[in-house]
Amino acid sequence: MNEMREVEVTVIGAGQAGLAAAYHLRRTGFEPERDFVVLDHSPGPGGAWQFRWPSLTYGRVHGMHALPGRELTGADPARPSSEVIAEYFTDYERAFDLRVRRPVDVTAVREGGNGRLLIESSDGTWATKALINATGTWDRPFWPRYPGQDTFRGRQFHTARYPGPEAFAGLRVVVVGGGASGTQHLLELAPYAAATTWVTRRPPVFREGPFDEDAGRAAVALVEERVRQGLPPKSVVSVTGLPLNDAIRQGLADGVLDRLPMFDRITPDGVEWKDGRRVSADVILWATGFRPAVDHLAPLRLREPGGGIRVEGTRAVVDPRVHLVGYGPSASTIGANRAGRAAVRDIRRLLAEPAGERVAA
């Protein structure tokens, strides 16, 4: 499509952060399709949740926070989280008439002149005065590279395509990664797999006791400092550690969570270390996290020498028209809600300024 349309604000992504931003735009007087538009590449509502593995039930979801203005109540904890949250998001979009356009793939965001950005997409080109980027990380799974990886005769999965524990029945599985996904996979796989081996780059840190508001603020502040310096963001979990709950304690007691240091190379039939130790494997499961999906912003040259986008609050320092929500410290569901509200507040101020003052020199 070559059609160009103009709006005040464009939201890219309709996960938690994007819907929170759209809600606050709507609440403060912006009309969907007239003043703002929400573009989402997913086939349906639900953000990244719609792609989660079936065995991740709603009762096992860690830290899902309701969207602003509408609670999620009465959900069956035994149902897959992908179904529960997709239905919740569907209801939310309908209740607030957000009119999300999907599936729409955004390929590039460029300078458009006259204070506007041009958003090139499969839905045509949108000229916008401000951009709220809420594309998350799910589309950019991080696959580390190790010597011999291409010679492995077994199968390799990433958390992003984890099919559930039944697919690993009778197989020898190496799980790579020290975050929440890695431990969840191990605990789930252990009753099915012939053997499991857990490897991580650093020894996992397990957190005792409650995680109160002060601890949460301190953790977020550490992540926030990185993005303020223009460094690639780390996850909040990377600085908080893993909660030592009953399931983790049992896994430690059973030896399922007996961690080994990172292997040095991959062989055709497993992995090995420099000291000669070897583990045979049919599957390597990479629970190695994700990176921000921001490649479409490359024409704006927002990245700093450190590799990240320097952000103050939600605003990209290089270009105040661009806000990143669900990025770095706002990557949690509650953080995404707050970021959506903060971005809209800043954008309202931006749009009130004379056009010539909107773009940093």
Report on the architecture of this protein:
The longest helix is centred in the C-terminal third of the chain and has 20 residues, at 333-352. A hairpin with a 5-residue loop joins β13 (270-272) and β14. α1 packs across α7. The radius of gyration is 22 Å and the shape is globular. It has 361 residues and is α/β, with parallel strands linked by helices. It is built from seven helices and 18 strands. It starts with a strand and ends in a 9-residue tail after the last helix. The strands form five sheets. Strands 1, 2, 3, 4, 5 and 18 form a six-stranded mixed β-sheet that branches.
Question: Which class do the helix and strand fractions yield?
Answer: alpha/beta
Order of helices and strands: EHEHEEEEEHEEHHEHEEEEEEEEH
* Oligomeric nature of the chains: single chain
Helix content: 10-25%
- Output the radius of gyration: 22 Å
Mean pLDDT: 89
How does the SSE layout of this entry go?
Blueprint: E1 4-12, H1 16-27, E2 36-39, H2 81-95, E3 106-113, E4 116-121, E5 124-133, E6 155-158, E7 172-176, H3 180-189, E8 195-200, E9 206-207, H4 213-228, H5 237-240, E10 242-243, H6 246-254, E11 259-261, E12 265-267, E13 270-272, E14 278-280, E15 283-286, E16 311-312, E17 315-316, E18 322-324, H7 333-352
Parallel strand pairs: 1-2, 1-5, 5-18, 6-15, 7-8, 7-15, 8-11, 9-10
Antiparallel strand pairs: 3-4, 4-5, 12-13, 13-14, 16-17
Helix pairs in contact: 1-7
